[in-house]
Amino acid sequence: MSSAKILYDWYLLNKRDLPWRVNQDPYRVMVSEIMLQQTRVEAVIPKYNAFIKQFPDLKSLALAKEQDVLIAWQGLGYYSRAKNLQKACKTIYRELENSFPKYYVNLIKLPGIGDYTASAVSSICFNEKRPVLDGNVIRIVSRIFKIDGDPKLSKVRQSLLERIQSSFFYDEDPSNYNQAMMELGALICVPKAPKCHICPISHACKAFNTNSVDLFPVKPKKLIKEKVFLYFYLSSKDKQIELSKETWKNYQSSYISPPFYESHVEQSDVDVLKGFGETKFAKKVCFSHSITKYKIAVTVYAKSLEDIELYRQEKLPKSGFLIKALKKFG
Question: In the chain, which stretches have pLDDT less than 50?
Answer without folding.
Answer: none
